[in-house]
Automatic annotation (TrEMBL):
NCBIfam families: PRK09569.1 (NF007128). It is an enzyme of class 2 (transferase). This is citrate synthase (unknown stereospecificity). GO terms for molecular function: citrate synthase activity. Belongs to the citrate synthase family. Keywords: Acyltransferase, Transferase. Pathway: Carbohydrate metabolism; tricarboxylic acid cycle; isocitrate from oxaloacetate: step 1/2. The keyword Transferase applies. Signal peptide: none annotated. SUPFAM superfamilies: Citrate synthase (SSF48256). Transmembrane segments: none annotated.
Length: 428
């Protein structure tokens, strides 16, 4: 792990120099104003966080560091975590060392399986994932070092240890949850000859096709991070800012991801596609499909997978998934319907209600569920677990960097209705 630690240390120095320069040029400069609608509207659009792992540009999509989706989508998840944490991709030697380190830490304590097997049979897989991580909190290297009195400047180093231990165990934990919840309960052993995503595909025991392992790699890469203000990343960051260790912070972030408004979009998209398949057939006529889409819109519903809070173009992650589907499952009925929706839905939305739809283009969720379905992952409740396994990379990297930069506890100010009314009266 020496290369990763050195890379983070160098990155922290670079980031701190940038912050020093920012403070020197205008520490008290105003960058965002908050209106009353934003106070009562979930703080949407309020610029109040610094996040140096990723950025979403409205017209070019997700960046990890300085790399576009097209530039990082062919990488391994291990390379992506390195990029999130250091701002750079690892060289071959550093990558191999990192993978070896993950393999050494991959064993899950037996008590975790005992806890998960003791739960009701219908427990949601996200509950199992969150609880599985939280049950290992007693293993926290950060907590033990903090109790002994470590220096503040070393916080990030111990959080890195916790990150490595959590990340290393995620493929086995997710695979085991799938086997316990949806399979015969038999756990498939970790294979040290496989990479991180390869082991996830292997331990799920769903499909031995190489294409499935390739899909898991792509899926984990494309969902790894999405700025710092989304529910799961922000929750994780707030919890960790109190110096709760990463077992608490990661579990908390996953609890946010489990919410229907955050992590369930791809399964809603697949449900919509399957509904079209059942009602209109495997290869619906374009005009019939157009009429169906308009009926959905006119009934007051949205088209799942279309629109994005930030993006104003087709999500490049959608394009990456579509290209994968063209190569690996072009004849799959769900993929074909998803592709046909892409050819007609944006045009419908652009003209619907006089073109008032802000973003008619597909996001990442419009395609990912169809690909999972093709390889036999048909249990909708498990989809968010795969999302979570990926997003933990972002949680960990964001928190490591925040601690390395000495960022304080997050504590915004809240106000009452009375306070707001008094301000309005004072303005006349």
């Amino acid at each position: 792990m020496t290369d990763l630690k050195k890379g983070i240390q160098n990155h922290l120095l670079e980031l701190q120099l940038e912050i020093d320069d920012i403070f020197a040029k205008g520490r008290d400069s105003v960058v965002s104003e908050v209106n009353i609608g934003q106070i009562y509207g979930g703080m949407r659009g309020v610029v109040a966080l610094a996040c140096n792992t990723s950025y979403v540009d409205p017209y070019s999509g997700l960046y990890i560091g300085e790399y576009t989706t097209d530039e990082f989508s062919n990488k391994l998840p291990e390379e992506i975590f390195f990029l999130l944490s250091t701002g750079k991709f690892p060289d071959k030697k550093s990558l191999l060392n990192f993978q070896s380190e993950l393999n050494q830490r991959a064993q899950i304590p037996q008590y975790v399986w005992d806890v998960l097997r003791s739960l009701p049979k219908d427990t949601h897989p996200m509950t199992m994932l969150s609880l599985g991580i939280l049950s290992m909190e007693n293993e926290s290297v950060f907590k033990k070092a903090y109790q002994k009195g470590m220096k503040k400047s070393d916080y990030w180093k111990y959080s890195l240890e916790d990150s490595m231990n959590i990340l290393a165990k995620l493929p086995a934990l997710a695979g085991g949850i799938y086997r316990i919840r949806f399979g015969d309960g038999h756990l498939i052993p970790h294979d040290p000859s496989l990479d991180w995503s390869g082991n996830l595909a292997h331990m799920l025991g769903v499909n031995d096709d190489k294409g499935f392992a390739d899909l898991m790699r792509l899926y984990l890469v494309l969902h790894c991070d999405h700025e710092g203000g989304n529910v799961s990343a922000f929750t994780s960051r707030v919890v960790n800012s109190a110096l709760s260790d990463l077992y608490y912070a990661v579990s908390a972030g996953l609890n946010g991801l489990a919410g229907p408004l955050h992590g369930l979009a791809n399964q809603e998209c697949l449900r919509f596609i399957l509904e079209i398949h059942d009602k209109l057939g495997a290869d619906p006529d374009e005009q019939v499909l157009r009429a169906y889409i308009l009926d959905v819109l006119n009934s007051g519903h949205v088209i799942p997978g279309y629109g994005h809070a930030v993006l104003r173009v087709t999500d490049p992650r959608f394009t990456a998934f579509m290209n994968f589907g063209e190569t690996n499952c072009a004849t799959n009925p769900c993929f074909k319907i998803a592709k046909k929706l892409f050819s007609i839905v944006p045009d419908i939305l652009m003209h619907y209600k006089e073109g008032k739809v802000a973003n008619p283009w597909p996001n990442v969720d419009a395609m990912s569920g169809s690909l999972l379905n093709h390889y036999g992952v048909n249990e909708f409740d498990f989809y968010t677990v795969l999302f979570g396994v990926s997003r933990v990379m972002g949680f960990c990297a964001q928190n490591i960097l925040a601690q390395g930069l000495g960022q304080p506890i997050i504590r915004p100010k809240s106000v009452t209705n009375k306070w707001v009314l008094e301000r309005l009266r004072a303005k006349g």
